Amino acid sequence: MSVTVTVDVSDLVEGSMKEVPISAEGSEDVLGKVVLCQWQGKHYAVGNKCTHYGAMLKTGVFSNGHLRCPWHGACFNVATGDIEDYPGVDSLQTFEVKDAGAGKVTITADPADLKNFRRCNVKPTPAPTASDHIVIVGGGPAGAVCAETLRKEGFAGKITVFSKEGVLPYDRPKLSKAMGVAADAILLRPQQFWDDINVTFKLNTEVTHLDVTTKQLKTSAGEELTYSQAFIAPGGTPRSLPIPNFDKQNVHLLRTPQDANTINNLVEEAKTNVVIVGSSFIGMEVASCLVMKKPAKIHVIGMEEEPFQLVLGKEVGAAFRALHESKGVTFHLQRKVQEFVAEEGSNKVSCVTLDNGDKLPCDFIVVGIGIQVQTKFIEGVEKRRDGSLTVNEHCLLAKDTYAGGDVAAFPYKGGTAYVQHIGMAQYHGRIAAENMMGKQSTISNVPYFWTMQYGKSIRYCGNGFGWDEVFLSDDPASGKFTAFYGKEGAVVAVCEWCVAPQVSAAAELLQQNKMPPMAAIKELKAKDGSVDLLTLLR
Asked: How many alpha carbons lie under 13 Å from residue 206 in its C-beta half-sphere?
């Protein structure tokens, strides 16, 4: 049975929000909470937790009619509850709000909806009734959202998803942050969901040839078909090193749940020597995760002066290094691997030799130096030097063929962006699907990604490629700061360390083209002693 509460909204102004507890009449027991927002003279009530990882949305950012999560940047329309930007797959519950006069409103809510704050807005779909056949190449988050969105928008034809992996779409970022996690525990959707909306997954099946001019494809299973429309999002494979003994048994790459579980199970407390090649996101997250298992030693090898230097700059990278060193990690920076040493007849590498002659004993090695996109099978389009594909603002690659996720370079603020992260991949999936259905949707979001290491959250938004200046709000050694990345005087990206929701506010400012120039940011710091981006939205 629904409950109705009366709420004073005299304290709300245009563009503001507050969390409201919901209780049955005459009871002090709280059944749940909602976020009440005021937008364009109306009031809206939605679930109070982000559907991604459950962050409290009252601590996020409300601007321009949507709520943005403070943790990972997912966005929800407050009028409909629908998810508009990612990560995540579910929308928010919405609750009826009525004007009660005298500066008050009533909110009516079903207790079940208060408890289950996630809402799936894709309904079960009958067997395909149209002859059209849309194929999705790649069973990752981009492909999953594309398939869901097609059904949400009313596509009645056949949908087939081809995936090289043997599991349904899952939350890949978990693999380097919780390496012991089981694949079934991080699925974006269970098998029953895909059955209910009539989406066919062909797992362990690779598309070996796709011609965008003829719209024909072939698979590793020998299947040949002609598609009506296609979405290409096959992701990539981990890069290897062109050195002898890379194929030895104890050299590991990280891409799948099985990879993560295998690496995690190799660590024995106080006994294992681990060498990690790569000092960016994968390498550093793996180090953070494995430290918790207390191995004998973890060595990290990186080519730059500091970890994350190319993306986050030297100052932020140095703060990361100091954090890891405090946990016992040893760095070998501005170094390259010269050799993986294996004794004759052995199937394992026993030592890693660096270009300066240093030798690092190892029980196993993890190589995390990025991915190589999987696009060799595609014919009929020009590819970029690294094999990636250039799409337009609709994710269109060629007539009736779309692309997204890790393989797609896309238009961004007058230039081109290339972002390999789950949120952008999911967003591409939605944009492609909506355009397949004739909506003419365009890529308009701001790239957003994050890392979690030793319980500390670092978030980043924008496209800082080619930045020429970094301005820090505070000393990185303090453990709380915001970094602004400038290019020709404009702020093009923002990073925060443990000061949420700075990056979520920055994403809104960038998306709405309201981000002040670097000079103004510096003036704010000099005047106020801090830079609170949330106040710039109000």
From this structure: 12
| 210 phi and psi angles, rounded to 5 deg | -145, 120
- What are the helix (H) ranges across 332-461? 422-436
Cβ neighbours around 80 below 10 Å, total? 16
Average pLDDT over residues 75-90: 97
Query: Is residue 1 scored above 90 in pLDDT?
Result: no
| Phi (first) and psi of residue 185, to 5 degrees | -80, -15
Instruction: Catalogue the E-assigned strands of 66-171.
Output: 66-68, 75-77, 83-85, 91-92, 94-101, 104-109, 118-119, 133-137, 158-162
Cα angle 409, 413, 415 (rounded to 5 degrees) comes to 50
Taking each helix axis as running N to C, give the angle between helix 314-326 and helix 281-291, from 0 to 180 degrees, rounded to the nearest 10.
20
- Give the distance between the most distant pair of CA atoms in the chain: 85
The secondary structure of residue 126, as a DSSP letter, is: P
DSSP 49: B
End-to-end CA distance of the chain: 38
Q: From residue 50, how far is each of 17, 43, 88 by CA, in Å?
A: 15, 19, 9
Residue with tokens 């009660």: 100
DSSP SS3 for 523: helix
Q: Say what the pLDDT of residue 8 is.
A: 96
What is the C-alpha to C-alpha distance for residues 310 and 333, in angstroms, rounded to an integer? 13
As a whole number, mean pLDDT of residues 38-55 equals: 97
Nearest partner of 453 among 316, 268, 333, judged by Cα: 316
Assessment of whether the complete model's pTM goes beyond 0.90: yes
Can you tell me the distance from the alpha carbon of 307 to that of 85, in angstroms, rounded to the nearest whole number? 29
Q: Residues for the chain: how many in total?
A: 538
In this structure, are residues 100 and 6 in contact, taking their beta carbons and an 8 Å threshold? yes
Q: Which two tokens stand for residue 57?
A: 């949305």
Handedness of CA 143, 149, 151, 157 (dihedral sign): negative
**SS3 for 513?**
coil
| Average pLDDT, integer, range 327-345 | 97
Radius of gyration of the chain (CA): 25
Choice among 247-261, 383-397, 417-431, 470-484 with the minimum mean pLDDT: 470-484
pLDDT band for position 142 (cuts 50, 70, 90)? very high
Let me know: does 183 contact 167? Beta carbons within 8 Å: yes
For the record, the structure tokens of 465 come out as 């490629």
Judge whether 116 and 86 are in contact, CB under 8 Å: no
List Cα–Cα distances, 120 to 75, 294, 429, in angstroms: 15, 41, 17
**pLDDT value of residue 445:** 97
DSSP category for residue 310: H
Helix (H, G, I), strand (E, B) or coil at 97: strand
Give the pLDDT band of residue 469 (cuts 50, 70, 90): very high
Residue 538 has pLDDT above 90, yes or no: no
Strand order in the sheet with 359-361: 337-341, 351-354, 359-361
**DSSP at 56:** B
